[in-house]
Model the fold of this input.
Amino acid sequence: MITSEEIKASLTKALHASFLETVDPTGEGVYWVLMVVNLACGAMGPVDQHRMVNDALKAEIGDQRIHALALKTFSPAQWEKLGS
Done:
């Protein structure tokens, strides 16, 4: 099991994201919905964006503290267009 704070710390360190949101829909701490806004996302397609997040959480996924992720990734420009 992993906490939201641990996920945010790993992502902040690796990605320098401008916005992070973590949701634990099951309350069990193993399945997470993540929303990530990162400048690098503007230069990448969706698969590479998700790969970047997965790479940032490689240790947490590898030791099975995270069993599943649902990712929503955006560049700052995309995020702004959404009005968020």
Observations:
- The radius of gyration is 12 Å.
- The mean pLDDT is 92.
